[in-house]
Design a protein that fits this description.
By secondary structure, the chain is an alpha/beta fold. 23% of the residues lie in helices and 32% in strands.
């Protein structure tokens, strides 16, 4: 599976990110604006660089241009965030899996929600997309999923509806099972938060709609 890791411009645990990249060995490593600062400090050369560089500035760019790294510069007045531009580039490159680091922690909740919605773009195209940090792994479910206990990211698994309704939600192998439940953004409240696997394999079934799945640790 051809994979892509994107280093976004949000708060980033450098040790975690370095170890993640070393383990993942992605075909493509794309930095979005300030994400380039991580590569510079860590001694890692990205495969592509994108952004408007209103946060990082352009002082580092000549160094990577001289190394032959493709750079796409954008006007700060644009329709897409730097992270979305990086995601779209990852799709252009033909990747089958995109992982975004540095996009789920920080002070800007607007960017967090924007990044979650950006994940819909690759998912609708059949490309798996994840937001990952030290404590969380986030993905969008457009079809049923089986998750193995030994492969889960953290102790807790939470489900949040991304469409108005998600019909027929059935959870088996979980501490709090469900049977043919209708998740509704107006009435379900926090029902799907902080579930746990009790079996080696947990099954998340549903007939229609889209779920946001969050695997979390304390």
């Amino acid at each position: 599976m051809k994979s892509c890791v994107i280093i976004s411009g949000g708060r980033l645990d450098y040790q975690f990110a370095s170890e993640f990249i070393e383990k993942e060995q992605p075909e493509f490593l794309i930095t979005a604006d300030k994400g380039l600062a991580f590569c510079e400090k860590s001694g890692i050369v990205p495969t592509q660089i994108v952004g408007d560089f209103d946060t990082l500035g352009e002082a580092l760019l000549p160094k990577y241009e001289a190394m032959g790294v493709p750079i796409r510069k954008f006007n700060p007045v644009k329709d897409y965030t730097d992270t979305e531009i990086a995601v779209r580039l990852g799709m252009e490159l033909g990747t089958e899996k995109i992982t975004i680091l540095g996009a789920s922690e920080g002070n800007r909740l607007d960017h967090l929600f924007g990044n979650v919605l950006t994940m819909m773009i690759p998912q609708q195209a059949g490309v798996d997309c994840f937001l990952v940090d030290v404590h969380n792994r986030v993905r969008i479910l457009m079809e049923p999923l089986e998750i193995r206990k030994k492969e889960q990211y953290g102790k807790y698994i939470s489900l949040v509806p991304l469409t108005t309704d998600v019909h027929g939600v059935t959870l088996t192998g979980f501490k709090y099972p469900l049977w043919d439940y209708r998740f509704n953004v107006q009435t379900s409240g926090s029902l799907g938060i902080s579930n746990e696997l009790t079996e080696e394999i947990g099954k998340i079934d549903f007939r229609s709609g889209i779920l946001l799945m969050l695997e979390c640790t304390d």
